[in-house]
Amino acid sequence: MKDDNKLNKKIETAVDTAQRAQRNYDLSVDIPSSDLNTLIYAATNSPSKQNETHYQLHVITDSSIIYQIYNQTKKFTLGIKEALDETKGEEWLYMNKSVKNSQVNANALFVYVDDDGSARGATHLKGKHGEEFSKQVLDEQKNYSVGISVGELILSSALLGYKSGICSAFDVDQTADILKTDKQPRLLVGVGVDSVNTERTLHSETYNKDLPVEYRTGDLDQKWQFPSFEKQCKVYLNNVEYSNKNA
What is the 3-state secondary structure (H, E, C) of 58-91? Predict the structure, then answer.
């Protein structure tokens, strides 16, 4: 039995790191192959139902390919109120009231791509053949599997000293073309070295002067800043509201 809580603190620190999306990276640095191999291992060996295969993993370290995919993420919406205006349309919103999601413009990009794999049970098998309810169940299981894998990936990256960011809003068809796959990309995860002495929420490229005045977050020649919130998650331990301050 361990006589200190060093491991506990290390895990908690990594959790705190992984919780926050990194919006800018030091792209002059390469992730060592030993670390990259560990991250791939964590992402591809995470739990799934009956150990079924629910996704492919495309790992990109070529900066030119990463930037091509990053260019497909101009879907981080600034015009929240305009999003409710059905006369504007989704494409108008993305073109005029959105920015690229720079958390994926990282040293390494992990792209989760849909994969049916082999189905263990009848429900999953029927889902693969298009039966509506079974397909819904199968899709749920795929989502769980990808979510668990991403959790292991970003926690592992934090334990190795890296920062990360997750993006689900991107042009799926264009990204599939870039990856040369006929399967559907589902999620992007950037992993890399953070820019030293740069606030993590600052966009990697977009300046305030590039945006309409109502969406600026500072001086014209300063980088635009992504919003950030504080999560409020209630926990109940044996049906009693829990606070780790009292643990």
Answer: EEECCHHHHHHHHCCCCCEECCCCHHHCCCCCHH
